[in-house]
Amino acid sequence: MEKSLLSLRRRFVILGLFATITVLFLAPTASAGSFTSTFKLAP
Amino acid sequence: MNVSDLSVPPNFFTGPFNYGFTALALDPAVTGQVTINSISVSTDATLHHLPYYGSSPFDWEIFVGPAPFGFAPGQVTGTTVRPDSITSNAPTQLRFSQLAGTSIGGTTTLTGSYDFVSNTFQTNTGNFFKFAGTSPGQFTNGLYTQVFLWSEGGDGINLDFRDITVTVTGVSTPEPPSLLLFGTGVLGILVLSLLAGLHTLSSQRNYGPQ
B181 and B165, same structural domain? Predict the structure, then answer.
């Protein structure tokens, strides 16, 4: 029984880590946008 | 900024040369993973001396990247260092020659652009395309740009440039704040651990003494 509970807890921890990694990879693509930078350059 | 080449024909590329680097410009808002799509430039050029062959060629070099390029801004005067020997390792560069007019004392507005998506190059006067290249990269502090103007036209070619403008377009994917990512991850693990703990308690209750 103890072994089974430990295994379940491990599974949840692994799921948590997986969720974290997913957020890390997906978050940057969520807000891609185009830009226009204009500079007036002094000599 | 003055650009001139006082080489005396039949000798060319000897100088002395006048050329210059513009100020280093920065757009701090462009951060994250950045892809450059196009560069456009414009300037007003006043011709002070026309070489004997009847045109006034000069060169543009536009550098774009995530960090300064190592060139001190300002005018270089009377040097024998050939400007075409000065190179940059900027990840995005546009280099081309353009003709600046034939009327001594006259001012010509010059424009040029390069589209890295369609690989199209345009100028409003005669040109000679040299190089255009870009590679996407991580921009941490913003987008830097700087322009280098020079000529190896010889025979006392003499040009003054003012109102130099550069427009850079592209796509940026900002990095999410590290703290937000870290917090999301920790919160996720905590919630799941809590669920595991509740499940354990529930199991102990079910398997208690009968």
Answer: no
